[in-house]
Write a structure and sequence with these properties.
about 550 residues; mainly alpha; about 65% helix
């Protein structure tokens, strides 16, 4: 099986006539939109231009970022990616004018594009003068975006030495999944030494990102640094606090899980390097096995999700294995035409199968979104996890039904590992980022201060369940650098996805509407979309339902130990 993606269906090369033609088409489309905004243009013409612009941007952006993220030493791709940012800056310069144009339209006349008008009306209240907005967009390339690139490029090339062998940091972090505690502990110690060697530039990067965001948020009149992210994620503050209340209530449940795991490992409390230690005795999952299993099991509830998964393997949408120079983690991005590109760092475990199922869920979501206009395919992070959580949960449930007792223990624990990360660890990240924003208003923070805040956040989230912490998680997670409060949407997505999964299992008619929900996820604010399917996001009880599913998994684990 080929394990690297095939980008030639997008473009044969940077020098190809196809790429050059697409580039010029994008340039002309931006100029066309600018011309429309300079006159008294009907709304339908502006909306059509926005759709065309999104259609032309997607394949260019996907191709260049895929090349760069698979090999951060690809200088040609990096240079062209920078040029694309400069080209798109011409569009960013138009955004204040576009926002004001849309804000003056009547929502009822916008049809399915109503949300764009409604959001423009709210955003117009927080716009700086046009000249300042344009200057902000121009400076972002040498400001926030440059700091984010520094983090991504630097961390992709960091190595650490374990038992005399120099390994990419992604491979070192994969050692946390090994059954031997000595190996996990060495990986932890080597990783901390590696981050310490690079803590100064990474601290400058984080200070730069949050400093710029704080200045702009105050200048635009937001009540706090959280408010613009609520708008971006299309949720209400009341919904977020309802979810946070349920999360805080659930922390004793997850601490119970950690103590159960510690007991199974023969320890009083877990150390940080034990969080991903396997329980039970799993087996190797080759990529061929993963492919067959995923396509078969996804078909049970969402046949089109299975078709998307098979296409991803057959048509080589994926770059699957870790290597030096490749960014860590996993992601999925649309490339146009309902198709996607997926990057992963696969290692032969069920956890990796689950991660692949997760990213293939995003690909299915992109497939569903292809039925709506391109400018309505933007899905907030809060809703963007719905299909991935559905995929992941479906695959785990299927695996548990077929697994031996020992393998079932491993699968159940791996599922709870992931859920705990999304609830407990992300709670610590939310606390950390909240404190960073508050302190960054006063001055820059040192690496020592970032470490202290991270340890404090982990103490509040994990409590007595852990004997050791990880002071450099602020350096590990690229989310802090690329966006603000990127953390809580994952928790939202997990618990919302579990609610959707539960509804689909109980109500076959809902399963047929599942793809409709995905397709509509860019058309409405989250509260309105959820209400259309019978969910109340501002009720703490709604979030408790998702956490109840996880509580049942903890009880199932306890019964196996």
């Amino acid at each position: 099986m080929e394990t690297t993606w095939d980008l030639t269906p997008l473009f044969p090369s940077l020098e190809s006539p196809e790429f050059q033609g697409a580039w010029e088409d994008l340039r002309r489309q931006i100029a066309h939109l600018k011309g429309l905004l300079e006159g008294e243009t009907p709304l339908d013409e502006v909306l059509a231009a926005l759709d065309a612009l999104a259609e032309k941007t997607t394949p260019l952006s996907a191709y260049l970022y895929a090349r760069f993220s698979a090999n951060t030493e690809d200088e040609a791709a990096l240079a062209k990616l920078s040029e694309l940012e400069m080209l798109l800056l011409d569009y960013e310069r138009l955004r204040p004018r576009l926002t004001r144009y849309l804000a003056l339209q009547e929502p009822e006349e916008a049809g399915p594009y109503r949300i764009l008008v409604e959001e423009a009306r709210w955003e117009a209240l927080h716009l700086m003068p046009e000249g300042e907005e344009v200057l902000s967009a121009e400076l972002s390339l040498s400001g926030r975006q440059a700091w984010a690139k520094l983090h991504e490029n630097l961390t992709s090339q960091i190595t650490a030495t374990v038992d005399g062998e120099e390994l990419p940091i992604t491979q070192v972090r994969n050692l946390y999944f090994r059954p031997e505690e000595a190996v996990r502990k060495k990986a932890y110690e080597a990783e901390l030494r590696a981050w310490e060697r690079h803590e100064v530039p990474l601290a400058y990067a984080l200070n730069g990102v949050k400093g710029e965001a704080g200045v702009l948020n105050r200048r635009r009149g937001y009540r706090d640094d959280l408010e613009p992210t609520l708008a971006q994620n299309r949720i209400t503050r009341k919904a977020l606090w309802a979810m946070q209340e349920a999360v805080r209530e659930s922390l004793p449940l997850f601490r119970r899980y950690y103590l159960l795991k510690a007991r199974a490992l023969g320890k009083e409390r877990l150390d940080w390097w034990d969080l991903f230690a396997p329980l039970g005795k799993g087996r190797r999952w080759t990529l061929e096995e993963a492919r067959g299993f995923l396509t078969e099991k996804l078909a049970a509830l969402a046949p089109n999700a299975a078709k998307v998964a098979e296409a991803a393997f057959a048509e080589r949408w994926m770059d699957l294995l870790p290597r030096k120079g490749k960014v860590g983690g996993a992601y999925c991005m649309p490339r146009g035409g309902g198709k996607s590109l997926i990057l992963a760092n696969y290692e032969e475990s069920f956890e990796a199968v689950s991660t692949l199922a997760h990213e293939l869920g995003h690909a299915y979501h992109n497939f569903a979104l292809a039925r709506v206009p391109a400018s309505l395919r933007h899905v907030p992070m809060t809703l963007a996890e719905t299909a991935s959580i559905m995929n992941e949960t479906l695959v785990v449930e299927a695996a548990l039904q077929e697994a031996s007792a020992e393998e079932g223990l491993e699968i159940l624990d791996a599922y709870l590992q992931g859920a705990a990360q999304v609830v407990v660890d992300i709670h610590s990240r939310f606390l950390f980022e909240s404190w960073v924003f508050a302190k960054r208003k006063e001055r820059e923070l040192s690496p020592r201060e970032f470490k202290a805040l991270m340890l404090k956040a982990q103490e509040e989230a994990y409590g007595e369940a852990l004997a050791t912490r990880h002071p450099y998680m602020w350096a590990v997670k690229g989310h802090y650098y690329g966006a603000d409060f990127y953390n809580y949407p994952y928790t939202f997505g997990l618990l919302f996805g579990l609610a959707v999964y539960g509804q689909a299992k109980e109500d076959p008619a809902f399963a047929t509407r599942y793809e409709d929900l995905l397709a509509a996820s860019g058309l409405y604010p989250a509260k309105e979309l959820a209400a259309r399917f019978g969910f109340d996001l501002e009720s703490v009880d709604f979030w408790r339902k998702g956490l109840k599913v996880l509580g049942e998994k903890v009880e199932a684990l306890e019964a196996r130990l």
